[in-house]
Amino acid sequence: xxxxxxxxxxxxxxxxxxxxxxxxxxxxxxxxxxxxxxxxxxxxxxxxxxxxxxxxxxxxxxxxxxxxxxxxxxxxxxxxxxxxxxxxxxxxxxxxxxxxxxxxxxxxxxxxxxxxxxxxx
Length: 121
What we know:
Elements: E1 13-14, H1 18-27, E2 33-38, H2 43-55, E3 65-69, H3 74-84, E4 92-97, E5 100-106, H4 112-120
């Protein structure tokens, strides 16, 4: 074993279809969900995603975290904006509860601790 231990992989659930998005929004009536939109070609997006992952403290079973690759699934991002009323940005985190966006932030405004506090109230 080396000096550095490998960090566990973040438990993202990939968002890859319109049907899945509709199921996710419907499931938000049972528990809130997070949608994280990430551009795999953008260093700012990579930084925001990495910072979010290192500061996230909630359990994925209690609060599912969905990851959208904007390059591969751009149409789904547009559908998220249409269904939530939240204008598209990248990177972007959106929390949905009871089929409504209760939090959204982009770029350096994405704050895992703020989201955790919101959900623990």
